[in-house]
Write a structure and sequence with these properties.
Blueprint (H helix, E strand, L loop, with lengths): L1 H17 L1 H10 L13 H17 L3 H15 L2 E2 L4 E2 L4 E2 L6 E2 L4 E2 L4 E2 L4 E3 L11 E2 L4 E2 L4 E3 L3 E2 L4 E2 L4 E2 L7 E4 L4 E5 L5 H4 L8 H31 L1
Parallel strand pairs: 1-4, 2-5, 3-6, 4-7, 5-8, 6-9, 7-10, 8-11, 9-12, 10-13, 12-14
Antiparallel strand pairs: 14-15
Length: about 230
């Protein structure tokens, strides 16, 4: 019994040491955490840690073993990351349930991904067929980023959006399909953790139409006045 407890303690210490970067990331990104030891209860911690192992095996062409580890991780965490995906430093998958990251996906540093996000393909491509997410990007809950497109650094993808085209750096995209509704000077959206303060493209379009209607009404009134003056 003591032997198994010792092995368990060694494993916990090894995981703690190996996951120092993940511990720092979770403590920085999640205000709910109260102690460093709590990270072992985070699905993101285990998903990223196990992905590092499966990715190394994948690069060694041990495809079955790498997929086996990724599927075990998926079963316990609810986060599906293909072992071929490339993930940078400081990536945090908040809550995580239902997140899917495809084989040729590339994720930069300091990226935050919320639950229900899909970084997938469209089913049409071969080779590079999944998105590239550059540094400091925030992807809101339930967003779908599909195809071999690039989300530029310091950008924000609104919750529930479907992104099918490249997104320039420092942009905010929302909607289905997603539209670029803002270009700002925000240095790092993934540090703000803000999914709410996003422009509404529908409201913006309604405002544009309202202004256009007012302009047409003014022109019509002007024409009516000119006709009245002529008739007099």
């Amino acid at each position: 019994m003591k032997f198994f407890l010792l092995i368990a303690l060694i494993l916990i210490i090894a995981v703690y040491i190996a996951g120092q970067n993940e511990i720092k990331t979770i403590k920085k990104k999640d205000p709910a955490i109260k102690s460093a030891f709590e990270v072992i209860l985070y699905s993101s911690f285990w998903a990223i840690l196990l992905h590092k192992i499966s990715h190394k095996l994948y690069k060694c062409h041990l495809f079955f073993l790498s997929r086996l580890i990724s599927q075990i991780s998926r079963f316990f965490t609810g986060i599906e990351i293909h072992p071929g995906a490339k993930i940078g430093k400081g990536v945090f998958i908040d809550h995580g349930m239902g997140v899917v990251i495809g084989e040729t996906c590339e994720i930069g540093d300091n990226v935050i991904i919320y639950q229900g996000v899909t970084l997938g393909g469209t089913g049409k491509e071969t080779g590079k067929r999944h998105p590239t997410i550059e540094n400091n990007v925030l992807i809101g809950a339930g967003a779908r980023v599909l195809g071999p497109i690039t989300i530029g650094k310091n950008s924000k993808v609104g919750a529930g959006s479907v992104v099918l085209h490249n997104v320039p750096p420092s942009s905010t995209v929302v909607g289905i399909p997603a539209k670029n509704v803002n270009r700002d000077t925000c240095i790092c959206p993934s540090d703000s953790l803000d999914q709410i303060k996003l422009p509404d493209p529908v409201e913006m379009e309604l405002c544009r139409l309202k202004l256009q209607i007012e302009k047409l009404e003014n022109e019509l009134n002007k024409i009516k006045k000119e006709k009245n003056n002529v008739s007099l």
